[in-house]
């Protein structure tokens, strides 16, 4: 699809994408927006021009600080809005006077708009669904001969994370401090983390609630998934290894997690469906599913030292996931756990089979034993102060490209 | 303090208590309430009578579905409201006409008012701070000779729980189902839990936020704690033991947790301050504290089979906690994790030194090996279908009694 708005060939924000986010629009406050190329489209502005009147939407439906209410209206509503936007911005579909009005009322240069947290996250869950990641971690910290724990191929292992400290791309986070237990010391010490890491993840956004006590089947699961974002589950490895038994990671993770600002709908990701890895042994019936439930989404992590160029440190793909999102959601609710609109479910670190596709510094440098050489001559075992970690992701097939933009975070020295 | 409202001698809701909750008031909707004896006081009604005018409160400040906004006004505001209520309901402090007006506008029989979730919980954290509980669990599931893990005496171990499935006392919850791995089987099976348990806990409610990146010291911690509730962290032990490595409990807990509806302020609990157990080895400086930070609060669990009488199965006390709330909060934020008003922090199961003071069926029946005899001739290893689990708690000292009411939940058969 071509648009009368300029779209560069490698833009994540094609006419096929039309994601949703919250932008801070000067003079209008927080509004629901979408993006085509480098142009942010204020949907409140489009509503003022009457484009959504026939759907029963009011201007105030788009003047919102978060997307939760909008998402609650249902995936069909969002789909209709996307279609209207596509029609309106299609090349030669609008008259010169319409275009002039739209430009005046609703279009902004992306570089001038601050993007905010897209949703109020009620609960955030993180899974652990990449077999390569779980195997790598098991080899490093437990038994190389039995790297995967006995439950791993039966359960999409997951745990609850902290919702309050999820921040949107562009955040600056101070290096966290906490308890670390040096191997040579009898007691723990108090210190800034010396092993600050990223975890390359995606997260899906819940679009529909289920009542407490009801389960969501794998067949129904995608009705409950509104869309996806990139997710950087920042982790302090030295704090984690001391604190995590027996109840799991806590302060090693909850100082900050970073998401990309644009929620890319499942509709937009439809062209990139694919099969996932085979699952052996066969999973229990409630985890079985029909059809292609993985998505071929290229993922990338770059590190940018201050005033230096970016370096790609990881190239992975969402298709490597052993457990797919439908299975994760079916498992999460099999006991009747209730989901709410805006809840986030992280994939867990997405590592691929090759060493360059590992999704964390822990794996890429094999616990710091194989540092990554940077173009400026320095090296990285983990993340340094003043490094910016940049995650990108996109699907590309048959000339269609749909991407997520960036989830980036700068690490400041300890406060 | 005596009141012109009748208060039975063993009431949890003395004039010294004056807790806060949300009641559903016929004709007025959801309102902030307090309680004296068996009388619920609608604070919106009191506001209509002008009792809070001089504090700058409007009637609409009390017509709220949750307490979050009210709590955000600060502990001093809540304290002033409590003082006004105490003055107004003090014996012989009100004229006959005042009393008649108050009765008409603001008083309700507690049995006629449905109490609702008192707060919108942003994040819920559960600690693991009873040394007796951690030791018992370690003896049963790990190594009896080294029951406490190496980090336990250094860290108030905690993890994130599910906020969406926290329900208020009076809830009915279906027995959850999930994956269980029988010892005799190579693979897990799908089954209703056969080891449904309670965990006797309290939780504190956050009353003030800290910005992301800032820590709260033990000296400041109580400024951030608005009050406390009883907390039943329902647990499916067979699901838990299969799923919990390496990332902690998940579906074994997130099907429901139950809180008591009245938030008892720290002010009201002041008379019950006491010292906690000594901590050896010495904790790191950020966990050290001054003064009495534990509270002498009697706790009790009863099981009530359907149409049968209640049986006390556990008698414990909040004073047994090894790690106090100030230490928990200082630890939780030492990495800069941000708290929001309404967040809940659970104590973890509160077990005492004696076998009758254990805070879970797991410990009371020692993994089901020592069933509890019930008066009707049946026995309990864990919780049966149609059992109601009732938790109660109160402090009592120098003629003052301040209590929490009940956190109860009925277990229905699997759905």
Give a verbal description of the structure.
The structure is a homodimer of 415-residue chains. By secondary structure, chain A is of the alpha+beta class. Chain A folds into 2 domains: 21-116, SH3 type barrels; 124-412, Fumarylacetoacetate hydrolase, domain 2, CATH 3.90.850. Chain A contains 9 helices and 26 strands. Chain A is globular. At the A-B interface, strand 7, strand 10 and helix 6 of A face strand 7, strand 10 and helix 6 of B.
Helix vs. strand class of chain A: alpha+beta
**Global morphology of chain A:** globular
CATH superfamily of the largest domain in chain A: Fumarylacetoacetase-like, C-terminal domain
Question: How far apart, in Å, are the first and last alpha carbons of chain A?
Answer: 48 Å
- How many separate domains make up the residues of chain A? 2
Measured by DSSP, the beta-strand proportion of chain A falls in 25-35%
Q: Uncertain regions of chain A: pLDDT < 50 for 5+ in a row? A: none
Determine Rg of chain A (CA atoms, Å).
22 Å
Oligomer: homodimer
At CATH level 3, the topology of the largest domain in chain A is: Fumarylacetoacetate hydrolase, domain 2
Q: Number of DSSP strands of chain A?
A: 26
What does the main sheet of chain A amount to? 8 strands, mixed
The interface involving the most residues is between: A-B, 64 and 63 residues
Supply the CATH architecture of the largest domain in chain A: Alpha-Beta Complex
Helix coverage percent of residues of chain A?
A: 10-25%
Number of distinct helices of chain A: 9
Top CATH class of the largest domain in chain A: Alpha Beta
